[in-house]
Design brief:
This protein has an eight-stranded mixed beta sheet with strand order 1-2-5-4-3-6-7-8. Strand 3, helix 1 and strand 4 form a beta-alpha-beta unit. It has 225 residues and is of the alpha/beta class. It has one domain: Rossmann fold (3-Layer(aba) Sandwich). It has eight helices and eight strands.
Length: 225
């Protein structure tokens, strides 16, 4: 697959993982982060989003991101992109979609610090056909990569996703908790039940109607800045 010129601060490594540092974090000590899935959490799920005209920001997403920004918390997008692995679209389309999403959020004073995307899938086309890539959620690779590039305190961080695999990725990365939202694929009862079953004494698995509820459910976002 031909890879177009990448934005500043972006790399696609030899294994196909997209890593983008939008705002280098200058903190001297590690701080908790807010990890967000993209499709079904920040934008409406449209099944392999790759056209800018299909982008619809979910109500409350910008407010949650902006709240984390205001508190000095890194906000990190971690998204599986099997559509690239399938050959349905390429990195150029991914970049076009990302530009529109980021610009729309910026209009509401919200921004991401880092973005990570994994194109691998067991049914993908080579070289993206790894059946269990360490970066594809529920594996924690994207979250761990973020912690190598940002001063992130993983054990006090949270993740929000619409799939059980998002919540599981948070647990596998050693986060404090994950929120399963009922938007996108989260509307399926099986996804909700599996996500909530991932809770343990050390990992909180919570349910929410949408990302907007994160303002009340995630203790980090309720702290005074």
């Amino acid at each position: 697959m031909q890879i177009p010129p990448l934005p500043d601060g972006t790399s696609i490594d030899d294994d196909g993982l997209w890593s983008q540092v939008l705002r280098p974090f200058g903190a001297d000590t590690a701080t908790p982060a807010l990890f967000l899935d993209r499709d079904g959490v920040v934008v409406e799920e449209v099944h392999y989003l790759h056209k800018v005209e299909d982008i619809h920001i979910i109500d409350g997403a910008a407010a949650v991101v902006a709240r984390a920004n205001g508190l000095g918390l890194p906000v990190i997008m971690v998204t599986n992109q099997a559509g690239i692995g399938y050959g349905m679209y390429g990195w150029a389309e991914f970049m076009d979609v990302q530009d529109v999403i980021l610009n729309a959020l910026a209009e509401d004073g919200a921004f991401f610090d880092g973005i990570y995307a994994c194109p691998h899938h067991s049914k993908g086309q080579a070289p993206y056909n790894n059946p269990d890539h360490p970066a594809r959620k529920p594996n924690p690779g994207m979250l761990l990569q973020a912690a190598r590039q940002f001063p992130i305190d993983l054990k006090n961080s949270w993740i929000v996703g619409d799939r059980a695999g998002d919540v599981e990725a948070g647990r596998n990365a050693g986060l404090t908790g994950g929120i399963h939202v009922r938007t996108g694929h989260g509307a399926e009862d099986a996804e909700r039940d599996r996500a909530l079953s991932l809770g343990t004494d050390r990992y909180r698995a919570l349910e929410a109607a949408s990302i907007a509820d994160a303002l009340e459910l995630i203790p980090l976002l309720a702290e005074e800045g």
